[in-house]
Predict the structure.
Amino acid sequence: MNKTQLVEAVVIESGLSKIEARKAIDAMLHVIEQTLHEGDRVSISGFGSFCVHHTAERMGRNPRTGEAIPIPARKTIKFRPLIEIE
């Protein structure tokens, strides 16, 4: 499902107009993004939680030459679902 399909599903489920549904989804994504940028965790009851994960610098290898290269530290987002799909 992409963002356009998500908007369509929200329109069907909520009865909102397409513009209102798109604004609501954009606002929700913006708030989640800003909260994660601040380093906080986002938990959505009954759905899951998003958190920032820090990975340390490590050594890797260039697959073509086999040369050792440093891979810099970085931040990634992890999602932990609360919903189990059967």
User: Anything to note?
Assistant: The chain is about 35% helix and 30% strand. The longest strand covers residues 48-55. Helices lie at 3-14, 18-37.
